[in-house]
Amino acid sequence: MFGWPVGYDPPFMVRHFSGLVRPRDEIKLLAAAALQRMQDQYNAHVDFRTSEDPRVRDNAFIGVHLRVEKDATDYHYLSYEDQLAYLKRRLRGRNGNATHPPDMTLPDTEKSVLYVACGDTDSIARLAKDVAPITVVTKNDLLPEDTFAGASLRNMTWDQQALVDMLILEHSGYFIGVRESTFSWHLALQRAAAVNWVTGGYPGNCWLNSSDIDSANIRSGCKFMLQDNEEWRDDLSAVVSNGHQWGGPHMEISVWP
Fold this sequence. Notes:
Layout: H1 11-16, H2 25-42, E1 62-65, H3 70-74, H4 80-95, E2 114-117, H5 121-130, E3 136-137, H6 139-142, H7 148-154, H8 158-169, E4 174-178, H9 182-194, H10 197-201, E5 230-233, E6 237-240, H11 250-254
Helix pairs in contact: 2-8
């Protein structure tokens, strides 16, 4: 699965290959319904960030892949506490302080909502308490069970519901995921591709250096921007780790955006 660095292929192919297989229309409609509900109920900006309009809007929503299900715990993925600590650090950084300017890559935390993709309801409730007063929402909140869309969502398998999360998170103003998850990597890299950063439009010092091949063909986050526990960080997304070596750098260079 991770045997071939996709950056070795032509940039156009890297940019568009994953689009050959897209979720079925029912899943797209549910994601669209959830985004519309978020826009109507919370005045959230839900449009894509693109190369034509790459800036983050103050009222865009923040997307989080909270990966704390049992298998993640069993395989020692990033703990809930570590994921929370990073998230809270970034949220505090948005406002800035006497020594650090505001982090303008994130939406305004006083105008934004936090959309969380997670398969563990107890952890979602815990997160909502830990980041209060910021509002936390999920697909189940946006698509209530007593609606047609909500009933359709709950009739889907776990993996199908995850695709609804993925399509919603593509629209987030800023996305935060975890290194051990291909779901998180796909979103971070796809969002970078959407503003042409994968296909050569990103500044040269945001690419891995290589002595034997063209470094512009190897994707990486902006290394000069990385803080503790970050594996990827650009103006649209961050992928976080805890120093555990499972997953390694091969996800970074071999997951299709």
